[in-house]
Amino acid sequence: MAETARLSVNGVDLDLPIITGSEGEKAIDVASLRAKTGAVTLDPAFMNTASTSSAITFLDGEKGILRYRGIPIEELGEHSTFIETAYLLIYGHLPNPTEKQKFEFALTRHSMIHEDMKRFFDGFPMTAHPMAILSAMVTSLSSFYPYALDAKADEYRDITIIRLIAKLATLAAFSYKKSIGHPFMYPRNNLDYCANFMHMMFAVPAEDYVADPVAVKALNLLLILHADHEQNCSTSTVRIVGSAQTNLFASISAGICALWGPLHGGANQEVVEMLTDIKVKGLTAKQFIDQVKDKKSGVKLMGFGHRVYKNFDPRAKIIKKACDDLLIKLGIKDPMLDMAKELEEAALSDPYFIERKLYPNVDFYSGIIYRALGIPTQMFTVMFALGRLPGWIAHWKEMMEDASTKIGRPRQVYTGPTLNHYVPLDKRA
Ligand code: ACO
Fold it and tell me: Which residues carry out catalysis?
């Protein structure tokens, strides 16, 4: 017999179906609740609510497990490339040699942006945050590809996906070039995705540039580790915007905006700013941790804590090791890394962090790798967006291809005034 959960509301007994996921997680299906009892569920910040079923990414926060389409993140980090992982997330399987070659070829052929788009960059101030530019540019892509506006038209879906992945790297690099007043460097088709991105970021017309393979490898790893994270804030945003059958470019632009926040992807920038601040003020790790523990200070240890991981974040573990390896290989000594390690050690042995199960998350060490690659702090969240793009696309596509998808529309519990009446201006106190 199928498992159910019994709920009594206003004298009505309901047997609600229990849905079991492929990894054994259970969810009580409350879809019939309001129709049968008039009541809704209340779960601020979705602490207990699954908003959808999804076959893309599995995450176990207690055991520190993260798998894309069943494959552990550790294996992908070791053996895959970002583009192969993107294909896996979006199409559900690792590409065979022909699929891989076709996908990579298409990505190189669609990496240029329309020349008219280049002029958009001139409208932004030099000081514009690159995340503001990126979200505006991504939604602007929909004006150049009008047939992508019909989100349900599956004949254009693959080419729209290719265009978006290919052009996001170009848009990201151009926004950096604009901020430093350098000429835009056009994409190079003989380079793979990450090497091409480094070229567009760091090459100048005056001299030859070859990206360091060690740096390209580290970039691939970072992007793989960021590529999906099931129903996080930005992915849920992409899904809710997309549920209105909004086109891919606009849905992803909304995700970029959600990612920007300091509690989400914006944390990687905040971590390096925090480390810099600690250095400038001459604080020890212990003094800073004491500030964090004093709730009145309003100071947080950025890059620590996670809604889902309550043991360790497997991505942080891989990134910390990659960070050590990269700095040694590149011969860089970064005082920020030493400070980050001191803070981690101080926090992990402190009852405040132990009791609250707060561990380093993906953002704690990623910024130090970006610094080593020469990427400026303001660009860190853009790097996160580049990495997260395949995940957002996979979720948008999964939702579009599911005939049962309905527009996302949460309920609320109203707590405002009950019936009230209009008072003419001259009668108001
Ligand atoms: N520093 C200090 N205290 C913290 C931190 C932190 N980084 N994170 C959580 N806490 C404390 C909270 O103050 C709270 O304490 P209390 O029980 O005394 O009130 C307790 O730990 C639980 O934290 P919540 O904020 O309720 O946990 P939630 O799941 O809502 O938030 C979040 C998770 C937003 C990631 C939080 O840990 C945080 O703000 N971290 C810093 C920002 C950050 O690194 N964000 C990146 C997350 S990963 C990502 O999105 C890519």
Answer: 306, 363
